[in-house]
Structure formats: structure tokens, C-alpha cells
């Protein structure tokens, strides 16, 4: 009775719908029990929300999107330019030129594409030749496609839509002449890595023959090491005659060298040593050819205009010496002079930077830093700036972004070489390592090196050590005051020690 009253009241207020009769119930079996479905059908009291759509202003009306693959590319143009809006082309050169001609026919002025492996390079170059602006996008920025399922056709349309409303930022790519030098330089790095593997093969063969030459001398690919290896491959087995081939400047005693050259010369290990040595020399020949090609390509660049005079230095300041090794070869001197002509400033004066690192700066970035508005943008592109992720006014993380950048790795290596130097950057490295730890301290010093490089290249000023010496003096003064306050709190006082000559 009470249930019927409550049911009638709910039905009058529209909370539940009309009740079905008993014969209208739909019974269904769930396992061992037969359970009727819900007795009451809840009425729809909530009205559906109207669909809202946000219309972004179209910035690039003549924009297209390209999804690049290994065998096919999907090209999407605006719907009012062509029907159908998406076309598929093969990745052969004739098909790529046909796609570029179709884009020109559709009056496309700019194209967005993802940097997918190396498949994008041929179509990118063809579009540049046709005068179409290409926006090369990092795939990480557009990987989340708001669709029920992901297809290449949807990706091309999504890239077109994002590029049309101006939500895509192009990745940094230097000018074409610099890209040519960069390709050869990267190929040279690959050859160097391949050659180092054959050095390991030679060391393994020597270990298997129990010839401990690589434990006595520092480099088996030096003058003495190669002379001994050539004699062993030629059939020389006398340890005394092999020792005479070594240079007298080797620190190890001749008796130790002679003992290290006594081993078990087996034929299978000699074959491995012979082939590894031949392969290493083959790669060295290819590396030399790459060096000649890089030198020829760099000579085609016109030198920059005369840089402005460096700022006046105090009289007490002693000009810093260039950061170069004791055994600087003529090739390194020529390359350094070439870098000075290209940049208009001697970057080798910066502590920790060698000629190879300065050459890497040119091959990876070029000499036009105008794409980076400030030194902070440049260090952020390198992945050396702290990434201050915050939410609700609280910093969640300050870790640097994980990027694969050859120049950033080189700057970290350059920063690590400053740990025992007496310059201001060396003191900064030791301070950061004691405060943050070794990995973060090296990254912080590499960040400072990147900012220094950007400032010198853009302003064409020589490196001035006195600027950093002032900051280091202020830091030492603050540190001394802090120690004095801490000693006073413990009941001690500082007394300056007088140096007795």
C-alpha cells in the first residue's frame, strides 16, 4: 500500500515513467539465477548540453598538411581548394614532384609536416625549390590526435588544421649551405665511431694472444703502436726487435715493453688483428676525405664583416691565452683561423672550447643566431635550461628536457674539462658540483657556456675573463662573510694570515 502511494507520487512528479505490467517484464538469465530487469525506468530529467564549438581565427588560409611515411605521403589541402581534400602520393621522386605541382595548383603557400626519421628530407627540399614555405614540426608536439582512431589521413588533416590557425612552431633548421656541411660532419662522426670499434677488435685479438701492448702504451693506434702491429702482422715474433720499434719517449721501461710483447701468436687471432687493422686504416682514409671536403665547403663561405673593437680592459688585466693543446697541429691552426673568419670572433678563447667544438657549433647552428631571440631561447633549444613545471603556484620539477642534441653533449664535455682549471668558469663548475652534484653542476656550466657563445657571436666581442672574475670575486666575498658570521655564532673569529716571503 505504502509502496503504491510512493510510486504514484513519483510518477506524478515525473521522476519515474509509467510502470509496465508483469507480463511485459523481460527476464534474462545471469548464471544460475534468473533476475528481472529494473522495475522502474528512471525518467530523463537532465537536458542534453548543447554542443559548443570554438572557432579559431584562420591565420594561414592557404595551408596544407603532409603526413610523411616510408612508402606513401598523405597531403591534405583546405576543403574549398580541392575535392577530395586529401590525396595519396608515392615516395618516388616523380610522385613527389607531382605532389608539389598539385600544391601549387591548389594555391598552397605553406605546408606543415612532421620530422619523421629521414623520409621528410626529399619532399622538404622539393617544396623549397618550388618556393613553398615548409613548417617542419616536432612529432612530439602533435602526437595526440583527438579522434576515435588514428590514421594517416586524419593526421594530415589535423596538421593542416593546426597550421591554419597558427598553433604549430617550426623546428630550427639552419640554412641550406650549413646543412650541407652538417651532413658531411655527421657522416665523419659515424666513421669515427666505426673506426673505434675496430680498435676494440684489435685489443681483443691482442688479449687472446696475451700480448699486453695496450696495457703498456696509451694508444695502440699511435706511431709506436702501429709500427709494432704492422711488424706482428708481417710475421715478426721476436720481442726484442719489436721493442726497438717503440719510441724512446714511452714512459714504460723497455724491459716491461719486451715482456708485454711475448705471447701466443695463433693464426685465427692474427687474422682478426690483420683485418681489424686494415678496416681501421680504411676508415681513417675516409675520415681524411671528409676533412678535405669540409675544408673545401667552409672555404666557400664569405667571411663576416670586420668585428667591432673589443671593450677596454683594465691595466691590471692580463689577456687570456687561447684554449688550445700543447701539440697544436697546422690543420688545427688553419681550422681555427677559418672559424675566426666565419664567426668574426675567436671562440677558442673561451676556456674549455677546442677547435673541434667550435666547428661543431658552426655545423649544427651556423653563424646566424637570429632565430633565437635571446640567449635563454638558445640554451632552451639545446635542452640546457631548467624546465620549471609549476601548478598552483608550486614548482613541481626543474629538470632539463630530455633532448638529443650533439652540441649540448659537446658543451657538457667542454664543461667537464674545466674541473681542474684556475679560471672563473672552472671555479663556477666546482661551485655548482658541490651545490647540485656532478651531473647537474656540469649541465649548469654547459648552460653558462651556451649563453657566453650566444653573446659573443651576436655582439662580435672577444671573450673577457675580467667580467667573470668580478662575479667570482663577489661570490668569494659573500662566502667569506657567511663563514665569518657562522664562526662568530660559534664563538670564533677569523684572523687573516700574513704571507711571509
Major sheet description: 5 strands, mixed
Count of distinct strands: 9
Query: What's the alpha carbon Rg, rounded to whole Å?
Result: 35 Å
Roughly what fraction of the amino acids lie in strands? Answer: 5-15%
Shape: globular
The helix count comes to 17
Provide the structure class: alpha/beta
Residue runs with pLDDT of under 50 for 5 or more positions: 19-47, 49-54, 307-327
Task: Look at the structure and give the mean pLDDT.
Answer: 81
Distance N terminus to C terminus?
114 Å
Indicate the percent of residues in helices.
Answer: 40-55%
Major beta sheet, strand line-up: 5-4-3-6-7
Count of the domains: 4
- How would you spell out the order of helices and strands? HEEEEEHEHEHHHHHHHHHHEEHHHH
Features:
4 domains; five-stranded mixed beta sheet; alpha/beta; Nucleotidyltransferase, domain 5; 501 residues; 49% helix; Helix Hairpins
Short overview:
This protein has helices spanning 2-12, 93-105, 120-129, 152-164, 176-208, 213-216, 223-234, 239-244, 254-260, 267-299, 330-343, 355-365, 375-382, 406-416, 424-436, 438-459, 465-489; strands at 27-30, 33-36, 63-68, 72-76, 86-90, 110-114, 133-137, 389-391, 394-397. By secondary structure, the chain is of the alpha/beta class. The relative contact order is 0.06.
Strand and helix layout:
Layout (H helix, E strand, L loop, with lengths): L1 H11 L14 E4 L2 E4 L26 E6 L3 E5 L9 E5 L2 H13 L4 E5 L5 H10 L3 E5 L14 H13 L11 H33 L4 H4 L6 H12 L4 H6 L9 H7 L6 H33 L30 H14 L11 H11 L9 H8 L6 E3 L2 E4 L8 H11 L7 H13 L1 H22 L5 H25 L12
Parallel strand pairs: 3-6, 6-7
Antiparallel strand pairs: 1-2, 3-4, 4-5, 8-9
